[in-house]
């Protein structure tokens, strides 16, 4: 996190939402982004029809993010347009060329890498991603598993990067003040059981994350 990031501009994304109540808990708490999972095989995967209804509850000031993994870019674009998403998060082997196409189509992007995969990029490859919004995660996204975050301390990181992977209200503060990402993304850590989001756990997480950084006026 650039050291000047304050509680007002810390980017907090809550992912895997499936109900109007949890969307409202996020929006009312002033998150930067809410995530809807379209990658198949997750307990959080929702239908396009339900996502359209939920995205309709998200104000323009909050990013509506679709989460995809190794799906054809034409399909990603079709879903994103139907749901009126603002942002596309990609968790597979998608390339910078794919990212640039999504930008040309008017979407913001988040490109996820496992920390292991990101660390294994060459300096030239890291340079290619340096200006993109990148999310650094554990190897299995959405599993609530942490990774050795110290491995991120030695190499070059993009200007805008988010930390994800096993975050919860009890560990987010220490990780924010140790790694200084631009923000955080959480799914499992705000669930009462796998795939089931809890509005109070969402509020607790946001409170804990904001408490870790200097106070800033909204
Ligand atoms: O949440 C999912 O099920 C999911 C499925 C496929 C790709 C990404 C997914 N979620 C992303 O996983 C990370 C961290 O999740 P967790 O907090 O460790 O459970 C986050 O970036 C979600 O957007």
UniProtKB/TrEMBL annotation:
It is an enzyme of class 5 (isomerase). Pfam families: PRAI. Pathway: Amino-acid biosynthesis; L-tryptophan biosynthesis; L-tryptophan from chorismate: step 3/5. Keywords: Amino-acid biosynthesis, Aromatic amino acid biosynthesis, Isomerase, Tryptophan biosynthesis. The keyword Cell membrane does not apply. It catalyses: N-(5-phospho-beta-D-ribosyl)anthranilate = 1-(2-carboxyphenylamino)-1-deoxy-D-ribulose 5-phosphate. InterPro entries: Aldolase_TIM, PRAI_dom, RibuloseP-bd_barrel, TrpF_fam. GO terms for molecular function: isomerase activity. Coiled coil: none annotated. Residues 12-207 form the N-(5'phosphoribosyl) anthranilate isomerase (PRAI) domain. It comes from the Bacteria. Its EC number is 5.3.1.24. Belongs to the TrpF family. This is N-(5'-phosphoribosyl)anthranilate isomerase. The lineage of its organism: Bacteria, Bacillati, Actinomycetota, Actinomycetes, Micrococcales. The gene is trpF.
């Amino acid at each position: 996190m650039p050291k000047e990031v304050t509680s007002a501009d810390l980017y907090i994304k809550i992912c895997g939402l499936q109900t109007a109540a949890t969307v409202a808990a996020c929006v009312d708490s002033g998150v930067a982004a809410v995530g809807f999972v379209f990658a198949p095989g997750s307990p959080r995967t929702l239908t396009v029809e339900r996502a359209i209804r939920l995205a309709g509850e998200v104000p323009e000031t909050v990013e509506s993010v679709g989460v995809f993994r190794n799906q054809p870019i034409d399909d990603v674009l079709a879903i994103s347009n139907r749901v009126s998403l603002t942002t596309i998060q990609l968790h597979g082997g998608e390339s910078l060329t794919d990212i640039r196409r999504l930008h040309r189509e008017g979407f913001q992007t988040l490109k996820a890498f496992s920390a292991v995969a990101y660390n294994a990029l060459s300096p030239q490859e890291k340079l290619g991603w340096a200006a993109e919004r990148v999310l650094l995660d554990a190897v299995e996204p959405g599993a609530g598993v942490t990774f050795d975050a110290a491995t991120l301390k030695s190499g070059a990181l993009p200007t805008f990067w988010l930390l994800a992977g096993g975050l919860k209200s009890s560990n987010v503060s220490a990780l924010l003040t140790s790694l200084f990402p631009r923000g955080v993304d959480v799914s499992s850590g705000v669930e009462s059981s796998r795939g089931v989001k809890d509005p109070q756990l969402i509020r607790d997480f946001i409170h804990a994350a904001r408490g870790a950084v200097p106070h800033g006026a909204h």
